[in-house]
Amino acid sequence: MKQNNFGELIFNESDVCDLLMSGRAPDSIKGMLVDDSVNIERAINFVDRYPELIKYVDQPGVHISVFNKQQQENWHMPAEYKQLDIAAHVLGLCDNEAELQRCGQELLLYQERDLFNLLRYLKYLVDVMTENQVIWGVGRGSSVASYVLYKLKVHRIDSMFYNLDAGEFLR
Q1: What is the predicted pLDDT for the residue at 152?
Q2: For residue 59, is pLDDT > 60?
Q3: CA 100 to CA 58: how far, in whole Å?
Q4: What is the rounded CA–CA span in Å between residue 125 and residue 82?
Q5: Could you tell me which residues come within 8 angstroms of residue 84 by beta carbon, excluding any fewer than 6 positions away?
Q6: How sure is the predictor about 51, in pLDDT bands with cuts at 50, 70 and 90?
Q7: What gap in Å lies between CA 88 and CA 21, rounded to an integer?
Q8: 73-88 burial, b if ≥16 CB within 10 A, otherwise e?
Q9: Where are the domains of the chain?
């Protein structure tokens, strides 16, 4: 934050984000002088859309393992994705019996590891990136061994074609 020649405070993007994330009502920043490059309405709309983010700002006295567990249980995505039957969705993307078998086996592995929320979030992430025309890579590392991730379009490597073992990803 800096002062202009008239002694008025001018906030930058970081200042605005700090105010929003500290839990202050978005109305408290209306009327502030803000650097031209900041899109205040977009920032306010973000906080209105995801108010649950506010409660994750600095929790003194919380052990890191507890904080990490809290974060892993709360995925920041719209309700329609949180409630999505991800197994049915993935199986619905399959075109033949071999794909159904492979996805079914992998989905059991994901379920054993309590990773269905991860799959829901990845579906949300891919949808958002596609909607906003964001380009992402073909695939990296052991994740390309997962046919479920291929069907969700997280990567573009057909692990069945290359006979990759899903166990390579879900060890």
Answers
A1: 97
A2: no
A3: 44
A4: 12
A5: 120, 123
A6: low
A7: 36
A8: eeeebeeebeebebbe
A9: 2-73, 79-168
Structure confidence by residue, pLDDT tens digits, 101-123: 999 999 999 999 889 999 999 99
Q: Is 143 left (phi over 0), alpha (psi -120 to 50) or beta?
A: alpha
pTM score above 0.90: no
In the block, tokens 């991730």 appear at 149
pLDDT at residue 55 greater than cutoff 60:
no
Q: Mind spelling out the 3-state secondary structure of the chain?
A: CEECCCCCEEECHHHHHHHHHCCCCHHHHCCCEECCCCCHHHHHHHHHHCHHHHHHCCCCCCCHHHHHHHHHHCCCCCHHHHCCCHHHHHHHCCCCHHHHHHHHHHHHHHHHCCCHHHHHHHHHHHHHHHHCCCCCCCCCHHHHHCHHHHHCCCCCCCCCCCCCCHHHCCC
User: Which pLDDT does position 34 carry in this prediction?
Assistant: 65
Which of 52, 50, 76, 57 is CA-nearest to residue 19? 57
